[in-house]
Amino acid sequence: MGLAAAYKRWRHGRGYGVHSPYAFRMVCDVLRLPRGYAYHAYAPIATRRAALRAPLPLGEAWLIYRLMVEFGARRVYIAASGPARDLIAAITAIAGATTAPRPEAADMLVVLDPGHTCPPLPAYYAYGGLASLPAALPSGHIYANPRRAVAAPRPGIPYQRIDIRF
Length: 166
Known about the structure:
Elements: H1 3-12, H2 21-31, H3 42-52, H4 58-71, E1 75-79, H5 82-94, E2 98-99, E3 108-111, H6 133-136, E4 139-144, E5 149-158, E6 160-163
Parallel strand pairs: 1-2, 1-3, 4-6
Antiparallel strand pairs: 3-5, 4-5
Helix pairs in contact: 3-5, 4-5
């Protein structure tokens, strides 16, 4: 990445040059929370992560919680296994949501395992792993990088994929 591209990424990552009021608020209040600010659930999440010895970095766990709160998740499908799945299930409970047994029953997906697949789904939501997630989501938001994704399907909201560093 060149110096100009790195500078542009730095600026946009802090909200500078973002013209949409929604996107600006999302960057400043959810994705890049200012130093010194914290959500009330940070301590319980840190305690649960330490108890589970989950490999998920604490900053990523907090970001997933903030996205759950922002989108008002009620049912979360978790595409992960082992301690990482248990940690996301605990974060889901802390956020006041429940885990969904199938992706089509969820209003948010958390994908931590890039190769995760699930049983066949209706045509509206044919999820087959992280690589197929964009094609499976006709509307809503995906916050993703090559290893992880948080998807919030929302009818009526145009599809957007936002590449972020977890």
